[in-house]
Amino acid sequence: MSWRGGVVSAAIVAGICAAIPLASAATALPSPDDLVPNTVARIAEVPSRRGMITKREFRHQIAIAAAAAAGKGLERIPRPGSGDYPKLGREALQFMLEGIWVYGEAAEMGIHVTPNQISRALSRIKKESFKGEAEYRHFLRESHYTGRDVRERVEVQLLSVRLQRRIVGRIEGEARNPAEEQRKLREFVEEFSEKWRSRTVCASAVATDRCSNGPAPA
Prior knowledge:
Shape: globular
Largest sheet: 3 strands, antiparallel
Number of helices: 6
CATH class: Mainly Alpha
Distance between the termini: 29 Å
Radius of gyration: 18 Å
Helix content: 40-55%
Order of helices and strands: EEHHHHHHE
């Protein structure tokens, strides 16, 4: 796990799939028109504040996405409704929702990581990916990440690894069966996405196929 070229990998959900039965959401979601003002999305049955995405958080993630896309010749931070803004908005919302879904799934399975575990993992990543603290701070400024953003992404990555091990039933030291592991992952991916999509409602203006009120998944 590292930051190469100043871009944090967004491939989260693909590694968090399992062949286990899923219960349908029990909590009624508000309609898009009934979302709390300044709220972009609401995800039911997720512990603490993580079950909500605010407009401020959404704009911040768009800035991160725009900074990452700048190296591909795209406008750095386009204005709402112009240029690449809609595309960046979809990518930002998808990234945020998938991270919340991972956190929610881990909580339901009783999987957690401690602040110390996050700090140790972050120290290892910084050592592997940056020449020193100054280069790391430069990365934060250029990418629009905050220290909190980084810690949350490290937490999600750690949860992802633990979830995947639980899902495929891997035991430490046991010989791996890659084909069987991939089968289990493939079997779960649709159920995982359907479960959390059914618990997610988004503001109509930004709803994607990750939202229960958005277009049907392709």
